[in-house]
Amino acid sequence: SQQTPTRRGTLIVVEGLDRAGKSSQCELLRDYLSEQGHNVKYIRFPDRTTPIGKLIDSYLRGSANQEDHSIHLLFSANRWELAKSIEQDIAAGITLIVDRYSYSGAVYSAAKANPTLSLEWAWQPEIGLPQPDICLFLSISAEEAAKRGGFGAERYENESMQTRVRELFRTLFERQKDVCVVDAGRTLEEVSRDIQAAVSDCVAQLDTVGPLRTLG
Ligand code: Z5A
Ligand code: MG
Q1: Is 102 exposed, middle or buried (0-12, 13-18, 19+ CB in 10 A)?
Q2: Is residue 19 within 6 Å of ligand 1 at its C-beta?
Q3: Contact between 206 and 8 (Cβ < 8 Å)
Q4: Residue 20 CA: which ligand is closest?
Q5: Is 1's pLDDT higher than 70?
Q6: Other residues' Cβ atoms within 10 Å of the Cβ of residue 116
Q7: Separation CA 124–CA 171 (nearest Å)
Q8: Ligand 1 site, residue 21, Cβ cutoff 6 A
Q9: How far is the CA of 14 from the centre of ligand 2 (A)?
């Protein structure tokens, strides 16, 4: 008897500013898609569990310093070390929800205003990684984000950095085009309803999209 080929999974990326609710929404989306009968996995970048991820973790916590370009390439390497397993999961029919990805990678590094670390430079090591089928950008004003608590203790969690990050996300997504902007300054339920609708449309169109693409 012939086996029916497995329908590939969908690669879903959730991006956004600090406290936009990415992790909360990723969990809600995982539960929603599971209830719909999908085989779902939720992963996040940085993946702090790998040897590279441990270096990133100590950098973010401030217990270690790294040169700007060097830490940038480590964040990228942290995605490359998981690229194969992402491709395998998608081919096996697993729907992957990814909390932050290459977009955060390029934007946070470029926000440092290091003269030799432009957004263009920062994007280069991302080229060739699996391309999301849908990228949801959770957009939130600085005022709304502030209502969700003060800045944390990690590096980058300060006003000037966040302001530059906000501007660079806008610049990057004007160029990237296929991003789904979600107003994240509303209730958990309102935001998740929009995300579910966008993801359902994307999953329904998957057959016309073809195989997983790569970032260019
Ligand atoms: N970084 C980088 O530089 N390069 C890279 O390549 C990558 C990342 C991948 C750590 O990331 C840092 O790494 C980050 C970017 C940099 N630096 N900064 N800043 P992270 O993903 O580990 O950061 P995080 O601390 O987990 O995420 P977050 O952005 O701060 O939060 P979030 O996931 O978007 O939000 P949340 O945890 O779901 O919610 C935040 C709070 O708001 C929480 O109390 C919720 O209960 C509340 N919340 C959520 N939604 C709502 C709504 N709708 N209403 C009211 N309250 C809400
Ligand atoms: Mg988070």
Answers
A1: buried
A2: yes
A3: yes
A4: 1
A5: no
A6: 7
A7: 16
A8: yes
A9: 10
Q: Which residues keep their CB under 5 angstroms from ion ligand 2? A: 22-23
Q: Which two tokens stand for residue 61?
A: 């916590």
Looking at ligand 1, which atom is closest to the CA of residue 148?
A: 42
For the CA of 191, the closest atom of ligand 1 is 53
Model pLDDT for residues 101-137, shown as the tens digit of each residue:
999 999 999 999 899 999 999 999 999 999 999 999 9
Mean predicted lDDT score pLDDT of the chain: 96
Cα 68 from Cα 60, distance rounded (Å) = 12
Torsion, Cα of 92, 97, 100, 101 (10° steps): 20
The complex's ipTM? 0.97
Rg over alpha carbons for the chain, rounded to the nearest Å, is 17
- The protein residue whose alpha carbon is closest to atom 7 in ligand 1 is 105
Distance 152 CA to ligand 2 centre (A): 12
Q: Is the distance from CB of 12 to CB of 133 less than 8 angstroms? A: yes
The domains of the chain are located at 11-209
Closest CA to 19 of 129, 103, 139: 139
Domain covering 11-209 in this structure, CATH number:
3.40.50.300
Task: Indicate the length of the chain as a whole number.
Answer: 216
